[in-house]
Amino acid sequence: ARPLLMDCDTGIDDALALLYLCLTPGTDLRAVTTVAGNTGAERSALNTLQVLETVGRTDIPVAAGAETALTGAVHDEVSTVHGEGGLGGVALPPPTAAPDPRSAVELIVETARAAGGTLDILATAPLTNLALALRAEPRLPELVHHVTVMGGAVHHPGNISPVAEANIGHDPEAAAAVLAADWDLTLVPLDVTMRENLTEEQRQRLLASDSPAGRLAGEILDCYFTFHETTCLPFRGCACHDPLAAAIAVGEVVPRLAPRLPVTVDTADGAARGALVADTRGIHRGYPELPGAGATVVLETDGTFGELLVERLTRSGQE
Ligand code: BDR
Ligand code: CA
Questions:
Q1: Ligand 1: distance of its center to the CA of 124 in Å?
Q2: Ramachandran bin of 152, using left for φ above 0, alpha for ψ from -120 to 50, beta for the remaining angles
Q3: For the Inosine/uridine-preferring nucleoside hydrolase domain, which residue ranges apply (predicted)?
């Protein structure tokens, strides 16, 4: 398998993605970097270390990165979505491993160089670290094999504004830079992540499992389910944003529909700030490739990922 670096803001669904990757045979998670988003970057790093320890992966370096967006803006407190501390208010023992002394940018650039063009990157958070890494190493696109980003809303409403999704909308300038860079990039927007769900019945199976990963997932999901049930889903459950992007990044979920579309981000001040602008005007002609900077935009998956995720997290304890 190609080496993988995950940049995240752990976060309940980031935690599910980390557990999924660690429990998916053949996945080579080399490093994790964290950024402010669901909670602060440093807190996300501690959360990540705790999650990795649940599956015995204290060997993976975890480096904290940007605490603000490129503009210096601090993200609003989003503890209502991900709970106190970012993991649903669940108290976990302090991690035995410490964060890596390098910065997130250093870890991204060094991991890419060491992998000699084979590194895949999965970003499930605001794109600040990746934008800063591009500034620090303009050759980064040549050093990276593929980038998968959970973010944006194409035909679906936004989740932090009527049109902006959190990972793009919390740092629009960073997202614009990352989307404009010359690398192969796949976007996994709300259009698909809101339709791959977990249900309360599945959460109960996670809680009842004899896998530490399954039980941790079941516990942290309680708060996430309450958020979804009271805001954006017609049932008690949740969307699978970050784990779906992880499964697409490692090739386990193959999208049904993923055209290559010109994409950009609205960075102007105003009602559409942070919106992903994807050119879907070819929709009735099977999305012929249009000129302009492009990303592969996932518009349809088969809706069965939640069950795959539950099976993966309940199957085994350590690795
Ligand atoms: C994205 O925002 C965060 O709250 C989630 O972790 C996910 O990465 C969904 O918009
Ligand atoms: Ca996230």
A1: 7
A2: left
A3: 5-283
Element holding 185 (H helix, E strand): strand 185-188
Q: In b/e form, how buried is each residue of 157-169, taking b as 16+ CB within 10 angstroms?
A: ebbbbebbbbbbb
Ligand having the closest approach to the CA of 81: 1
What is the per-residue pLDDT for 244? 99
Ligand 2 midpoint to CA 245 (Å): 10
Report ipTM for this prediction: 0.99
Chain segment 213-243, per-residue pLDDT in tens? 999 999 999 999 999 999 999 999 999 999 9
**Top mutation candidate among 48, 241, 244 for ligand 1, by most atoms within 8 Å of CB:** 241
246 membership: H or E segment, kind and range: helix 241-249
pLDDT tens-digit map of 281-317:
999 999 988 887 799 999 999 999 999 999 999 996 4
Which residue has a Cα nearest atom 8 of ligand 1? 124
Angle, in degrees to the nearest 10, between helices 128-136 and 172-180: 50
Question: Which of 301, 255, 306, 317 is CA-nearest to residue 22?
Answer: 317
